[in-house]
Each structure stands twice: as C-alpha cells, then as structure tokens.
Amino acid sequence: MEYTNLGKSDLKVSRICMGCMGFGNASMGQHSWTVDEEQTREIIRHGLELGINFYDTAIVYQNGTSEQYVGKALRDFAKRDDVVIATKFTPRTQEEIDAGVSGQKHIEHYLDQSLKNLGMDYVDARVIIGTS
What we know:
alpha/beta, TIM Barrel, four-stranded parallel β-sheet, two-stranded antiparallel ribbon, 4 helices, 17% strand
C-alpha cells in the first residue's frame, strides 16, 4: 500500500480511503443496499490487512449505524493511533438557525454524537455535507 500525507497535515494515510456509506443497518436509513455489521467487520478487517488505514464515514449514513459498525470493527481490529477516521455531518437546518443554534453548537452536537457512535475520543477529520 502506498501512503501520503493528508493535505498539509502530518497524518499518513493510505492512498486508498475506504468509504463507509455502504455499511449500516439497511432498515434504518436512506439505502436498502447497505451491508450488515458482520459483513462490515469482514470488509474492514480485510482492508486493514491490505494496509488501508483511512476510513471515511458520516453520521447521516444509515442514521449513525455506519459509524457504529465502523467504530466497533476498528476498535476490535486496529490500534486507534494506526487509523485515520473522517466523518461528516449536515449543515444547520433552517429550524436550528431560527432557534438561534450557532454553527459552533451545531458542530459540537454532531461531533459529540459521532464520537459516541464511533466509540472513540476523537476523529481526525470532519466535514460539513452540503452548502448551507
């Protein structure tokens, strides 16, 4: 596996990032084609064996079950410092804006929930999905 720095950071990531949108409880989200936890674990374990250390998920993938499956598998099969985790969340809704929820509070809420889903103390990268 080849590795490179993530952007201008000192994080060394595999040139192949495993996208995790296909993982999660198929009955709990927008996609009926996602794979269950057992299959997720097999795929992640194989990815780790191949040297993939970069995993990209999102709180919105299957209502958080992607993050839950990914986090559990990585906790079971890898040392936290050996993997790089990216997650994403949506922008504030109009209702949040109208209610005075700041962008910072919105991000803190989603990050806290992602950390809980992943069962981790930190993520390495976070991105807002959308343009609002």
